[in-house]
User: What shape does this take?
Amino acid sequence: MKKTKTRTRYYDYSLKFIIYFLLVFGLIILYSTSSYNGRLKLGDPAYYLKHQMVMTAVGLLAMEIIARIDYRFWKPFALYAYIVSIILTLLVKFTPLGVTLNGARRWLGYQNFSFQPAEVAKISLIIFLAAFVCEVGKNIRRIKTLMVIMAVTGVLAFCVYQFTDNLSTGIIILGIGVVIAFVAFPEYKPFLFGAVGAALFISVLLFCVFHFITLTDDTPFRIQRLFAWRNPEKYTSDIAYQTLQALYAIGSGGLFGKGLGNSIQKLGFIPEAQNDMIFSIICEELGLFGAVCIIFVFGLMLWRFMIIANNAPDLFGALIMVGIMAHIAIQVILNVAVVTNVIPNTGITLPFISYGGTSVIFLLAEMGLALNISSKMRA
Assistant: This one.
């Protein structure tokens, strides 16, 4: 009697190791970056670390739970998740539940609890677009379907931008939608024309801003940031201060850095250094070598996402992985580009490393989805 070979399930332990490595590294560099601010403002050098550890623990619990739930379970709820995301952004703008922190009204909160609906929007869009593409089937070849995908993405991005004043997340949402559409749609021409059109629009916009607008105190702050991006040393006021200090940190770090904990710029020179500009402190303390190593680890994570997407058991799982991969890739690229002044300052956190409770929880929820999809692969 012949023995039949049993097919064993696969589980991506490499991805899990990368996740835990980034979390541990993030907590270490967060403490190094935030201890001065914590001691000065809150009387506790470990304040930010403690809060982030609690949120990370909640996120890890969410990751482990979601990793054990079949990812197809979420498919029937995709539309509802998308609608809820829009409603949450409206609540920020038009209800007393909206909370303003650091001059921006981006949070929903009650008493000591608060979270950013923009983080919910990212994962909701990924699941919704993956489910939508599966539902339309062969109709994905129609240009009308592509227009619907982009319209759905644009509506959510607009709501996040308009109602939570969060341009950076709106850009990330648009990027996620474009990448999923690009992978699902069989033709390349619409994306080529779209890329050329976007490049021309941005070029004309920048030309008009720099040649027909005079910078004054009444100029909208996003226009001011364009001038600061073009020539940060010319504008030593608040609009270029953070960028300049970040560049000083990067330059002073050299090849191997000043050593963990020895940053000078985190001592009040970079405002809220533990948030968007934490990559500059990595460069200062660990040098170019440390910064490249962290980017390499993110590259390994994206490679694992690609492997899982290519071997996912169905289209729904593959497109979820594409969306997650697009989210992480876009956010890392934009954060590094902002810190190094390649693009104007838009306030984008570095995944798993920057301070932010809502961010780490929903990032780990996405990782739970990725791990569950990987478990459906066959070794």
User: Anything to note?
Assistant: The beta strands are 98-101, 104-110, 113-115. The chain has a mean pLDDT of 90. The radius of gyration is 22 Å.
